[in-house]
Amino acid sequence: MGRPLKIAKAQAVVTITNTTAGTELITTNANFTNLGIIAGMPFIPASNIGGLIGGTTYWILQVVNSGNNSTFYASATELSANPTYTKFDVSTAAGTVAASVGVVDAYFNNPVSGAGYPATNTATYGVVGGNTAIYGKQTLVRTAIGQAGTGTLTCDTGNTTVTGTGTAFDTQLAAGSVLVDSDGSTIGFVDSVTNATELELAANALVDVTDGTFVFATNEAGYIVRQKGKTKYLVTGTTTGLTAPCYTANVANAALTPNTFNILATLADASTKYVESLSDYNSEVFPAQVAAGSLVIGTVYTIYSVGTTNWTAVGAFANMTGITFTATAAGSGTGTAVLATVNPDVIASFNAAAVANADASLPPVVTISNA
Description:
3 domains; mainly beta; 8-stranded antiparallel β-sheet
């Protein structure tokens, strides 16, 4: 398997609307009581406002008003390092700046090097999940969340025309939407919507449906909320606002069926591929590595770490992580390989893919679309 990623979480994301010099009060649009926000929690403003610097971690020193439009004082350090309860000096300002309160799992150093948030080294692997308003990188996806259609359908295999009774095609569907029969069989993708009760498919219907209930979905931009399984994630669509369990699919946007999504990644050579799974933080298993010098001739390996090994001398066509080859010699040097049958997950990073792939200490790395 590959290296793990963490799932981003936060106590809440609030909007800072005002800061007041002199009193040092910071005003938000949130109700801290309802959100469970209390003194001592860290918060990160997304951008500068009233002397607060975007991307910098501060701490809630004291909650002054915990009802609607809650106000508070900030501390520049953790409260244990601020025994005099000194308020952070703010200037007077107004705006709408998102602030993430109580962010956890927002970065992960692997191997461990550097410190703090944000991390200070290029071996830091990015955030997956969370809410796109949470400060930090988020994994963006394309998803098709299934919705139960109103009314019933009638269509025939080999025909592009779909008619409905009690349907509302013109308000629910659009070109590119996919229709699925109640038994899970894909009917087809919509080419155009004629009116509330008739539409045309992009190709002949794949199944016969007579007076059948149906599910539809239209692909939209979205983001991962959290991981529920190796290929199952809770995903939110940013157009519909729907959140539902969805499965990764190795297909283009236009081919997504209900409750599937894709994750687009860019390789070092600028080509792209769809990621079928991201490593779970808690359940990651690392592959057993074989040191150069212990390779078995005739065995198929994948380069895991380049090290000082000359991999082209033992059968590989290049000295780069991720290259699969049949060993022609035992090898030497500090590099390592894994059996090709390990089939490690694609490793996600928000760093430059080309640099990561060229780094002898890292396994194959891709750059994932992120916000």
